[in-house]
Amino acid sequence: MLRKCALILLFGALLLAVPLKMVVFKGNKALKTSYLYDNLNLVIDKAWYEFSKQNSPKIKSSAVKILKKNLINLYKSEGFYDVKVEVEEKNKRVIFKIKENKPVIIKKIIIQSDIDIKKFIPFKKSDRFVARKFILSREEIKRYLRQKGYCNFDVDTKAYVELEKLSAKIVYKIKKNQRCRFGKIEISPVKTIRKSVILSRLFYKEGDYYDPKKIYKSYQNLLALEAFDAINIQESNFGDKIDTSISLTPVSSKISKNIGIGYETTYGLKSVLHWEERNFRGDAKKISFDLKYSQKEKFIKNTLFYPAFLDSAKFGYVDFKNEFAYLDTEYDDFEEKKTLDIIHFQKSLEKYFLDTGVNIQNIQISKFSDNCAINEGKFFMVSPFIQVVIDERDSKIFPKNGYYLSSYFESALTYLGSSSTYTKLLIEGRVIQTIKDFTIALKSKLGLIDRFDKTLPESKLFFAGGSFSNRAYGYNKLGANDAKCDGVGGKTLLDSSLEIEHPLVGKFSFAVFWDSTLLGVGERDFDAGFVNAYGFGIRYKTVIGPLKFDLGFNADDSSIYALHFQIGESF
User: Is residue 397 part of a domain?
Assistant: First the structure.
C-alpha cells in the first residue's frame, strides 16, 4: 500500500513538473515584441538584478494553441485582418512566425456633430484602422459630454470595414442636446446631524448646471467631516434634470486616541498624545486635545470645529473653528512661553477655501545671552488674518498631478491692543506632475514682513528647516544672520523644494530632492545668500497618507545634516 501511494505521488509530481518553453516572436514589424508581451499577459520572470538571464517569457506547451488564437485576435484588433501565424516548437522554445500582411486602411472619416470632437478622434485619412482606439474614442467623447454637463446626449459611432478592399469608413454622429441641471436633492435623515450641515458640504444646489466634478467634490467635503462611516450619492437622470439622493451612516466609533514616542533631530526624544471625539454632541462637530512633551518643546492644545455655525443669506454656510494652546519652546538663544487662541471663520467654495479670523497671543521671551538682537519681555498680540487657498490637486493624500496656491495675510495694530504693529504676507505655490512612473513636485514660498516698531517678538519672524522646508536642518533651526548673532528670525523668506519620486516595490517608493532657502534679516532683503540642501528619502503608502523618511545634507558642508520623519504629503 505504501509503495502504491509513493508511486502515485511520484507520478503527480512528474505531471506538475511540466517544462516551460520560451516564447519567441518572429516577423512582427508593426507591433513591437514588448507590446505583444503586455497585451497577451506574458510576464518575464526576471528580477532587476538578473542581468544575464534571458529576457523572454515562458509558457507551458498546453497553452500554445490559446496563445496563438489570442495573438491572431490581437492583430485583428490592430487592423491586420489578414494576419497569418505559424507555430514551431523547437527544443525549449516556442516560435510564433508572424506574417502581418497588409492592414485595413481608413479611407473616409465622416463627422456629424454639434460640438467639436476632433481632438477625440485618434485617426486621420490613410491611417491604420485600430478597433481598440475607435472604441476608446467613443468612450472619451461620452466622458467629455458628461463633464460638460450634458446628460442626455446621443452618440452614434460606426465603423464599416471592407475586408476585400482592406479599407474602412468610420462615422461619428454626435448630438449633445440640452445641457442638464441639478434637480431634487434628497437626504436620508441622520438622527444626530442637521440637514443644513449636510447641505453645507455640497458644491451644488437645485437648478445649478450639472457637473460630475461637483458631485465628487461634495463627496470629499462630506468625507472630511469625519462624521460618517459610509457616504453614498446616487444620481438619477430625468430628461435634462439630475436628481441626487444622499444616504449617510453616522460614525460608529466616535472616540479616537493615539499615543506615540518618537525622536526629532531638533527636540530629541518626544512623547505625543492625540485624543478626539467626532460628531461631538451632534451636528458633525469635532473636539480634540493634543499633548506633546520633549526636552525643548512642550505644548497642550484644544481644538473645536463647528460646521455650518452661521447661515448667511449673502455668504451661505460658514464654519467655526477655535484653537486654544499653551506652548513652551526653547530655541538656541532664547525661550518662549506662549498662550494663544485662534478664532477661525471658514468657507469652502467650489474652487476656493477662505479662512479668516483673529489670532490672540500672550508671549513671554527670555534671552540666554545679550549677544543677539532679540526682543525680550512680554508681548500681547491681536492679529486679524485672512487666507485664501486654491487646491486643484487630484488628491490631498496622494497627489500625482495638479497645483496648489495659498495666500496668507496677517496684521497687528497697537490701537487693537497689540504690543507691536506689523504686516505679514506668506504666498505659497505647489505644482506636481507625473510622467510615466516619475512624480515631479515643485514647491516655492515667499514671505515678507513689514515691522513698524522694534518690539516684534522673535517667533513672529521667519525661520526655515524641517520636513516641509530645508531638510538639511531640523524644524526652525535655519535662521538669518545679523551683525551680532547667527540663526535669528528673518523678515524676508524664499523657500523652495524640488523632489522626484519613483516607485520601488509594493507600497514603497524612493525620492531625491533639492531644497534652497534665502532668509534675510531686513525687510525685502534679497541680498542674503541661498542655503542649499540635497538628499533622498523613502516613502511608504498608508491609508492616511505617506510615511516619509528623509535625510538631507547641506550642499556646501555635508557635516550639517538632519533626519526627518513625517506622516502626510508636503506637496
Answer: yes
